[in-house]
Specification:
The protein is 27% helix and 19% strand. The protein is an alpha/beta fold. The chain has a single domain, classed as TIM Barrel. The strands form 3 sheets. Strands 1-2-5-6-7-8-9-10-11-12 form a 10-stranded mixed β-sheet. Strands 3-4 form a two-stranded antiparallel ribbon. Strands 13-14 form a two-stranded antiparallel sheet. Strand 6, helix 6 and strand 7 form a beta-alpha-beta unit. It starts with 31 loop residues before the first helix and ends with a strand. The structure holds iron/sulfur cluster. The site of iron/sulfur cluster (SF4) has 11 residues, from loops. Iron/sulfur cluster binds next to loops.
Length: 367
């Protein structure tokens, strides 16, 4: 499907800050490209409309003044924008025992705002809103040069960190000079052996592929084996334009593209839709990586698929998938920042799905 529409009238009219979350973030902003696609795929109640058109009544229903941070990211911010949860370890002599990875949030803007966004506590927040969060991107939409220097110095000195995931918001919506500065500095760290792996989390190829420009491809090609972590939730998001951008990232940037999908009620909570999504992604050279249970933020409870239904979907889906797509894991990024807990498949082993252990081995009961 192509986004190009001959229709001049637009029925979806984003309400901007009039439809943002009550704590003051996630305005209803949708790219023109996505508006056209929503119109062609069932409108407001279609699988794309539901993801991007605000439902203020439902989003407010469980409102708490202090917007939730289910992954405890604010607590783990150790340098400007750098969230360091998955820690590495050094021995007493300073030798690396194992490596850690850091997430670097460099902007709070996106090309379109997803109503279930985990970082909806600050993503899209207009500058007149005062955030409860001390996170750098809650305080400023982009990092200052000084903050960037500080973050880079942190990465350089944290000998045990070998991997950075650039995130936001959507890093690829950043202005060219800003993103170039950051990528160049990371490329230098990579060339000097401070970093091995650099990933870029983005939804721009889905939200607005026509905003991806030649300079993006060229810039990412300066990294060694960049990984693009594409957030994609429904096969109807895979338009010709999106596929062409993904192909260019592969060809021109030398990127490996992996996909992350959030399981969302009345968007993709059925086996057929996910089968199609994972199969087309695999065919197009994108490796399905994770299917996530959506995070328990107050504004997205109406998207939550009950966990037992979610497990049923996954158990039915996985055996149908190509071995390539079936390497993806279904995971819950559990509350309080304890990490991503993969849900075991449970057919080969006796699994009762009532308890899990976090990445440090601590045991919890599943709600
Ligand atoms: S693209 Fe990612 S960061 Fe932006 S609104 Fe969607 S989920 Fe949130």
């Amino acid at each position: 499907m192509s986004f190009v529409s001959t229709s001049q009238t637009i029925s979806v009219k984003p309400r901007g800050i009039d439809a943002m979350l009550p704590h003051g973030a996630l305005p209803e902003m949708i790219s023109l490209y996505m508006i056209r696609l929503i119109e062609k795929t069932g409108g407001k109640n279609g699988p794309l409309g539901r993801q991007f058109i605000a439902s203020p009544k439902e989003e407010k229903k469980y409102y708490q003044k202090k917007a939730s941070d289910p992954l405890n990211e604010d607590y783990h911010e150790v340098a400007p924008g750098i969230v360091y949860k998955y820690r590495g370890k050094l021995d007493k002599k300073g030798n690396v025992i194992y490596h850690g990875r850091a997430l670097w949030t460099i902007t709070r803007f996106c090309a379109t705002y997803c109503r279930f966004c985990t970082r909806g506590r600050e993503v899209g927040m207009p500058s007149f809103v005062k955030s409860h969060s001390k996170a750098s991107i809650a305080q400023t939409p982009y990092l200052s040069s000084k903050q960037i220097e500080k973050a880079i110095a942190f990465l350089k000195n944290a000998k045990e960190i070998n991997e950075v995931i650039i995130s936001g918001g959507d890093p690829l919506v950043s202005p060219q000079p800003y993103l170039t500065d950051i990528i160049q500095k990371l490329a230098q760290l990579q060339q000097k052996g401070h970093l091995d792996i650099i990933r870029i989390g983005t939804r721009l190829p889905v939200h607005n592929p026509i905003a991806v420009r030649d300079w993006h491809y060229q810039l990412l090609s300066t990294l060694k084996n960049p990984y693009i972590m594409l957030h994609i939730n429904h096969p109807l998001e895979l338009t010709e334009e999106t596929l062409s951008v993904l192909n260019n990232f592969r060809k021109l940037s030398g990127a490996t593209i992996m996909s992350q999908t959030v399981l969302l009620k009345e968007v993709n909570d059925n086996v057929e839709v996910l089968y199609k999504l994972f199969t087309v992604l695999s065919k197009e050279g994108v490796r399905p990586y994770y299917l996530f249970q959506n995070d328990p933020v107050y504004w997205a409870q109406h998207f939550t698929v009950p966990i037992h239904k979610a497990i049923k979907i996954w158990k039915k889906l996985r055996p149908q998938l190509s071995g390539i797509a079936a390497t993806a894991r279904f995971a819950i990024d559990v509350e309080n920042g304890y990490g991503k807990i993969p849900v075991p498949e449970g057919d080969a082993w006796d699994v009762d799905y009532t308890h899990y252990r976090d990445f440090k081995g601590k045991k919890f009961t599943l709600a």
